[in-house]
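agent: user wants the structure for Autotransporter domain-containing protein from Halobacteriovorax vibrionivorans. delegating to structure tool.
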Amino acid sequence: MKIIKLLLTSFIILISIDAFAAPSARRCMILPVRDTVGGAIGYEVFSKIERYLKSSRWCYYQYNSEIINILSNYKQDLDKALENPKVLRLVSDKTNAGSIIKVKIESLPQGVTVHLKIIGANGQDILFREELDLNQDDPDVIAQTVNNWLDQYEKQIPYDARVLGVLGQQFSIDLGKDAGIYVDYEVKIVRPMRRRRHPLLKEVVDWDTKTIGTGRIIHVGESLSQVKVLRYEDKSLVQVDDWVIINKNTKSSEKREMQYTPTEDEEAYSFGLLGNFGASLLLGTGSNNNSSASGGTKAISGFDFKIAIEGEIYATRNYWVGIDLEKGFGSYSKDSGTLSPEDNSMDSSTFRLLAGYKYLPMGFFFGPQIDIYLGYGSYSHGYDTQISNGFTGVNFSGLLIGAKGSMPIVKDLRIYFQFDFMFSPSYEEDVTVFGNASDTSNIYLEAGGEYKYGPAVTLFGGIAYLGNKAEFASDQRKVDIKSTSLKAGVKFKF
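agent: tool returned. relaying tokens verbatim.
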């Protein structure tokens, strides 16, 4: 199970990493270093700067071999391509880098001119720029000059981390042990309001910010950490992409209480949640097949309509309990065999009581999610009792176990897949027709997509399949009940 979980997690992370918002400026990458002597100096300088970035604590170095393939398409005029904001934006998207480091070396009669430009994730914002004439072309001196500039740039980044996801009064940040932070460090939360650009150089020179509050780090992972809000300085709540400034001189003995409690209206705009409630409609087809060695196969099928409600409540950040209720109606007719009468009505009901664990591979709710759950399930299929045809109301119930995985595709849109089954469910009949079952099985599958319509409203749709089967020791008798439905509904977070 651990191996399967690891494989699923790795797969989801790999295919979903490009789905998130603009990356942090502390995620950096360096473009190929250009020179005017055919790369004789540039490659060696590139290697030395790259080694510095990989060992630094301020930069989460982002490398992607696909960038080589992308830039190879522009090898006829690479310098021009690296000035194109669309190309730089593509590089940022592929590497998840918020600081694109661009170094150019121009040879002089004696020495070189070194140019450094650091560009933001949108391919346009110039975050830092330096230029210097050196009286020598030693790669070590050039690389050290650039590294010194990068140290200056690090001090100008207006935040230590950014908020990735919020759950009530706790939130995740994109900083961990790799950056040298620990539990009990206090943080300041600020929100960027407006950036100021130099009117001539077009560089970002300053930001207008608003202080939101303070918090304390309560858990530190390798590259992600969890923070609990201590107090608010403003009536705004913490949001995704807010900035976090670390105070590494925090006294761990200090105990602070929240001084401001958000009002009910303000909580409605929080990205945190205590649970969710959903309702949906299902329209599809169903069938009931029974067979025996002596009587052959008799089957009915038709269209059915179902109404479903579901709810979840979080006991903690990861543990939850939920309930699913469903009621369906339909009109079936003969599909095969000799039947008298040939029509039958159907009504169904479903009850599921679940408890599960939500695993967040990237540490926050807005990334991939994997739910493992177990509980009790009961599926009732009601039919007009027709003993000669082999039809009567039946019920399958028992202990079930399942899993659900979801991942973001683009902003506000994610896909999901869910499956569960019952262990040898019990089988009961309204009127004894076949008797006690010797073997039973159950499976439920669902796949679809979810669209975040608003902060607390999600629209979803997909396809659902339910199969219940019972086999009997005598006369090779079998009962096989199936339904396939299109599903559409809405969920509300609270």
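agent: one observation worth passing along. The longest helix spans residues 139-156.
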